[in-house]
């Protein structure tokens, strides 16, 4: 099959983005596709909305794992594409439609070309939250079928098609979600002295948060605190009894993560005193850093550098997060950025990656896995 076929697969998947652990139609689409492949080397299992597909090797001495995440984001698509999201309010705004179609392309090749080593394709739910990698790793299936090596990619809008960017060691940050609920006293807009306004309290809190990275974190140790969502109140002339801020913390070291969480807790106590209200903090789900094993990453980087028609970029670490970090905490492997050349970035409603990157990535990965003495 021509690898441009997977552009159509991507377009199908792009229309049905679903949130973490709700990827029912996505799972059904993937399973239908996989069950139509030649089955003689395949073993298919499911885990929640995820899927494991084993391609049993001819003379296996190890399992090589390839992971693709499958969930979408709760955001409105702003493109005019003919194949735009049909699930209003959800979008594949982080490229997981690319990740899945590339994985299907590589799987399709090996389903008809039995590898020497066993390959395990892992279609993982809930990367954007609350995190599927950790519970999947703890599943009975992955305890019995532990890969000896793991590979994954993530699309990179800022790089051209034909490029691969990665580095040995630290690639992505530690992350922690952040949810804070404010409870004060509502009232009539004309009587502020009888109420405790949670819109004002939340606004002060968000402003104070900005001082943490600027004044508490060692400038040589990068960190990010972003509030992506604020909600509060019910009507323009009612003082808000409740507000909620939602955000994320990113650090390159665990000590900075702990320090930032400590500072946030202190600011929360201060807001409670200053505004005579109650706040509750929930640090949500936490992902460990993505750390590329030096040896296998180096061999992959050499492979890309020496391959015709592909360009290697040795990139800096990024403040993005990825629960693939949990795989790499236990299993040697690597993640890389795949150039997709989009004017609009990840998590933008206008993200429009160049689909030529799909056949490029499928061929690159097939070549790499072949060179890895798999066939
Ligand atoms: C590659 C990417 O964009 N990953 C997400 C991971 C989200 C982690 C977690 N749910 C959080 O928001 O902290 C990212 O936002 O970096």
TrEMBL record:
GO terms for biological process: diaminopimelate biosynthetic process; lysine biosynthetic process via diaminopimelate. Its cofactor is Mn(2+). Transmembrane segments: none annotated. Keywords: Amino-acid biosynthesis, Diaminopimelate biosynthesis, Hydrolase, Lysine biosynthesis, Manganese, Metal-binding. It comes from the Bacteria. It holds the Pfam family Peptidase_M20. Residues 180-269 form the Peptidase M20 dimerisation domain. GO terms for molecular function: metal ion binding; N-acetyldiaminopimelate deacetylase activity. Pathway: Amino-acid biosynthesis; L-lysine biosynthesis via DAP pathway; LL-2,6-diaminopimelate from (S)-tetrahydrodipicolinate (acetylase route): step 3/3. The Mn(2+) ion enhances activity. It catalyses: N-acetyl-(2S,6S)-2,6-diaminopimelate + H2O = (2S,6S)-2,6-diaminopimelate + acetate. The active site is at 69, 128 (proton acceptor). Its EC number is 3.5.1.47. Belongs to the peptidase M20A family. N-acetyldiaminopimelate deacetylase subfamily. Catalyzes the conversion of N-acetyl-diaminopimelate to diaminopimelate and acetate. This is N-acetyldiaminopimelate deacetylase. It comes from Anaerobacillus isosaccharinicus. The lineage of its organism: Bacteria, Bacillati, Bacillota, Bacilli, Bacillales.
């Amino acid at each position: 099959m021509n690898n441009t076929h997977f552009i159509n697969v991507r377009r199908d998947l792009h229309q049905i983005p679903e949130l973490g652990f709700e990827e029912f139609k996505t799972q059904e689409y993937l399973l239908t596709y996989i069950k139509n492949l030649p089955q003689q080397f395949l073993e298919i299992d499911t885990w929640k909305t995820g899927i494991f597909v084993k391609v049993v090797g001819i003379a296996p001495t190890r399992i090589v794992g390839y992971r693709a995440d499958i969930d979408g984001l709760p955001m409105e698509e702003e493109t005019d594409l003919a194949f735009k999201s049909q699930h209003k309010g959800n979008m594949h705004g982080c490229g997981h439609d690319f990740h899945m179609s590339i994985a299907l392309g590589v799987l399709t090749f090996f389903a008809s070309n039995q590898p020497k080593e066993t390959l395990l394709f892992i279609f993982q739910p809930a990367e954007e939250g609350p995190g599927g990698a950790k519970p999947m790793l703890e599943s009975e299936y992955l305890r019995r079928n532990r890969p000896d090596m793991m590979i994954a990619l993530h699309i990179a809008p800022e790089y051209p098609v034909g490029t691969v960017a990665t580095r040995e060691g630290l690639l992505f940050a530690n992350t922690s979600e952040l949810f804070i609920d404010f409870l004060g006293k509502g009232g009539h807009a004309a009587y502020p002295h009888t109420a405790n306004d949670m819109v004002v309290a939340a606004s002060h809190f968000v402003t104070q948060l900005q001082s943490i990275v600027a004044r508490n974190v060692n400038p040589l140790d990068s960190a990010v605190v972003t509030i992506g969502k604020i909600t509060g109140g019910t009507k323009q002339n009612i003082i808000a009894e409740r507000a909620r801020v939602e955000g994320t913390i990113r650090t390159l070291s665990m000590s900075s993560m702990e320090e930032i969480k400590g500072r946030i807790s202190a600011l929360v106590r201060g807001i409670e005193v200053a505004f005579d209200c109650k706040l509750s903090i929930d640090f949500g789900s936490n992902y460990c850093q993505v750390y590329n094993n030096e040896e296998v990453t180096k061999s992959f980087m050499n492979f890309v550098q020496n391959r015709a028609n592909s360009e290697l970029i040795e990139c800096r670490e990024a403040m993005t997060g990825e629960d693939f970090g949990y795989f790499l905490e236990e299993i040697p492997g690597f993640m890389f950025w795949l150039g997709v050349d989009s004017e609009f970035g990840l998590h933008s409603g206008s993200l429009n990656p160049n689909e030529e990157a799909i056949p490029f990535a499928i061929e690159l990965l097939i070549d790499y896995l072949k060179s890895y003495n798999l066939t």
